[in-house]
Amino acid sequence: MNPVLKFATEMGPLVVFFIGNAKFGIFPATAAFMVATVVALLVSWVMMRKIPVMPLVTGVFVMVFGGLTLYLADELFIKLKPTIVNCLFGVILLGGLAMGRTFLKTVLGDALPIDDEGWKKLTVRWGFFFFVLAGLNEYVWRNFDTDTWVNFKVFGIMPLTLVFALSQTGLLHRHMIETEEDQENL
């Protein structure tokens, strides 16, 4: 998929959520977030004939917790969604590793040619990072108003994730495996 379109399908629903909250409040923003998430998943399907695992899981949670938010008219559920999703990802990564599985390698192995030790270290780091994000979400929604939480969700989580991902480049370089293509380019 075109990188710009990929970025739009990943960030578009959050932008819709942010704008919807700023203009209309949390409940219309939640409904718009749900619609935008479905549209983003459909675009992924049409363009790639598959839906990546993480957006699919997140989309399911958006539908469930967004639906509960709207049905029960209680914003608690949409605020809990990031905590639960991040904890789920952390448990899957660290639990999988405890059982000898590196799910990050399963998902990203084609894009990142690193050795098994690198995958284990990266899995531990991302697993704990997801728990940190869950804790931050809990702190912000419990101690600040809804608008502050929405701003944090949109403008805090993504930059933190980007900084964390970039901070892993040293590990990636130390554990990089030379591919046949690398050998041919020498």
Alpha-beta content class: mainly alpha
State the low-pLDDT regions, or none: none
Work out the number of β strands.
0
Averaged pLDDT: 92
Topology:
Elements: H1 3-24, H2 26-48, H3 53-72, H4 76-98, H5 103-108, H6 116-143, H7 146-155, H8 157-167, H9 169-174, H10 180-184
Q: Can you describe what's shown?
A:
With 186 residues, this protein is an all-alpha fold. 83% of the residues lie in helices and 0% in strands. It is built from ten helices and no strands. The protein starts with a helix and ends with a helix.
Structure at a glance:
The chain has 10 helices and no strands. The protein has helices spanning 3-24, 26-48, 53-72, 76-98, 103-108, 116-143, 146-155, 157-167, 169-174, 180-184.
Keywords:
2 domains, mainly alpha, globular, 10 helices, 186 residues
